[in-house]
Amino acid sequence: DAGITQSPRHKVTETGTPVTLRCHQTENHRYMYWYRQDPGHGLRLIHYSYGVKDTDKGEVSDGYSVSRSKTEDFLLTLESATSSQTSVYFCAISGSGGVAGELFFGEGSRLTVL
Amino acid sequence: DAKTTQPPSMDCAEGRAANLPCNHSTISGNEYVYWYRQIHSQGPQYIIHGLKNNETNEMASLIITEDRKSSTLILPHATLRDTAVYYCIVSAANAGGTSYGKLTFGQGTILTVHP
After folding, report:
1. Do A103 and B44 touch (CB under 8 A)?
2. What region, left, alpha or beta, does residue B58 occupy, with left being phi > 0 and alpha being psi -120 to 50 degrees?
3. Which residues pair with B19 in a beta bridge?
């Protein structure tokens, strides 16, 4: 299994509070992604990173920011959580030496915003 | 990325082959077909991918029609552990640069394998 760790795995928070989800990899892969999964919507890309300090928006980036200060960590921040951000968040990684579309996913972080 | 159409659900008997279809009639020449599956609430798992030719690995076979407008994922001997949501994705993720690895997941097909 790819070395991907997401933390926290479960979190309950209140509307308006900041939340940071962490994705840590031990594979030294260049590319990292944050997806969210909601019933009826499948997985949707929030943000991705193609290198240290290099990030870009996905299809549902509003309300989220990311940072990648080192290869192994990709942080997803909700500056002021809303109930619509209640979801399961998946981090994924891929390496430039392998299959371009072969992503390795973490176990997910379940976030509930009350 | 081109969009795909998959049946919402399928059933299969354990030990039989599961054939999961996918339509991607607007696929472009540089787009690959990828298949992933997601078991219960785990993270999605890569299965196989292809461009034009049929592909086979230890998990499955991928059959792509000559016009590339549709494909079929084949699980040759389905087991109960193959019960999952299967996603067919068409993407130019191989294009490199900032598009590398970007995949758009649809609703997928819920495959239920029965004893």
Report:
1. yes
2. alpha
3. B74
Chain center to CA of A91:
4
Identify from B49, B103, B107, B109 which residue to disrupt to test chain A contact, counting A C-beta atoms within 10 A and taking the largest count.
Answer: B103
Determine contact, residues A44/A59, Cβ cutoff 8 Å: yes
Structure tokens at A88: 């399961």
- pLDDT one-digit tens code per residue, A25-63: 999 998 999 999 998 778 999 999 989 999 999 999 999
Across the interface, whether the CB atoms of A31 and B100 are under 8 A apart is answered yes
**B62: chain A residues, CB-CB within 8 Å:** none
Q: Is B102 on the interface with A (CB under 8 A)?
A: yes
Dihedral angle, C-alpha B51, B94, B28, A36, nearest 10 °: 110
Alpha helices in A24-105, H assignment, sequence order: none
